[in-house]
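Task 17 of the worksheet. Students: predict the tertiary structure of the chain below and write it out as structure tokens. Keep your answer in the requested format; marks are given for formatting as well as content.
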Amino acid sequence: MKFKNIFRKRRLWRYIITVFGTIIFVSFALVLPWRWFAPPTTSFIIQGQLHYKSPIHQRWVPLSKISRTIPIAVVAAEDQMFPIHHGFDFKSISKSFEENRRYRRGASTISQQLAKNLYLWPSRSPIRKALEVYFTVMIEFTWPKHRILEVYLNVVEFGPRVYGVDAASRLFFGKPPSRITSEEAALLAAVLPNPKRMSVVHPSQYVLRRASEIEVAVNSLGGPGYLYRM
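Model answer:
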């Protein structure tokens, strides 16, 4: 009986190790390749294709061909601690609803948003949030910061059926992302909280005000040079 119990425990531990090993292997297979290669699609783009049932506008462009005004505008709008945190901005999480802040930003970091865009679905369920945390850790562990920002800028939605800065720049401003001005970059960043309801082409007073606040935030961070610490 004693040997049977030992044998069962060993089988249980082998099973546990196999399961966890498989999870880790699959996770690396899903995350690691995009450190070097452009993701062929994302979960959000697939969901957009199913929802709109019409062509999606998206084309990959390297970070070197994106105007420096765009990354800093997005960081200023979405995640000002991006260069120095490790996936989670705990200070912003605890203070995201703090009153009397002139410029507010969400508690989710760019890394978290990228994890959600690449692999998950728009939901606030505990399971989805747990998976977001898991994939955020994986991305931060395996990718450098500049790669996280590059992939995010290429897959995030800027308007209905418009994903990535190349498509957004050409459709909204009629030029490549390398020629986007600071004002245009602020407009692009201003609609990110809800690109289905906010418009770059026909900005509301709220979007215009938010864009102005983003420009102020960019200047307070020190401009594009702020991202050199990545």
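Marker's comment: Residues 38-229 form a domain with the Penicillin binding protein transpeptidase fold fold (CATH 1.10.3810.10). Confidence is low (pLDDT under 50) at residues 99-105.
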